[in-house]
Amino acid sequence: MSVEFSLLAAFLVGLMGGVHCIGMCGGIVGALTFGLPQPQSRARLFGFQLSYNVGRIASYTLGGVLLGGLSGLADNLLVIHQYQSILQVIAGLFMLAMGLYITGWWTGLRHIESGGRLLWRHIEPLGRRLMPVTRPGQALLLGMLWGWLPCGLVYSVLIWSISTGSALEGGLLMLSFGLGTLPNLLLMGMFAAALQKFVRYPLVRYGAGGLVMLFGVVTLYLAWQPLPA
């Protein structure tokens, strides 16, 4: 599977998965938005929202760098590159699971969040100390903490980053995913009520999840193709 295909797939997973992100993170974004000193100009409000999301995506990217780097180290030490196709199969299966998760037809990915909740118990109190947010720097730091919020969708893409076998590619994969989530969550901060109503439509969720599952099928197909001589 080419790097370009993986990055495009990750971006679209983030973009389509933003339907899920709005449902899960909408309350957080709304609390951060309405917690700002009022009144706020739309430009200043956008600046705070952008800071939150830059911090969040930075944490995603760091996670991808760490897991991709660890898998690359294992590749060098244990010579597991022969099993790269197996890792791609796992990535494809997780994409199918993510699509089902977005549609609401299967919520098994929530079990992945259990381990993250243990870490979040230690991170969440740090976020409280940054509230209320009055400066963009605070918003950036809060976003970096928010990036570790237990989320089956995010954690699944992190597991996908393991299949890259590279710190650089793992980081780029998570960066692409994070950028895909950006439009939805930026708009969520500016037009919360309208977007929440939009994503409640079943066809929106089904279309988003179906496209993610399609990428999963393509990934599985490519994983089973014979390696070039």
UniProtKB/TrEMBL annotation:
Residues 9-218 form the Urease accessory protein UreH-like transmembrane domain. InterPro entries: UreH-like_TM_dom. The chain crosses the membrane at residues 6-36, 57-74, 86-107, 139-160, 172-194, 206-224. Coiled coil: none annotated. Keywords: Membrane, Transmembrane, Transmembrane helix. The keyword Transmembrane applies. It comes from the Bacteria. This is Urease accessory protein UreH-like transmembrane domain-containing protein. It comes from Thiohalophilus thiocyanatoxydans. The lineage of its organism: Bacteria, Pseudomonadati, Pseudomonadota, Gammaproteobacteria, Thiohalomonadales.
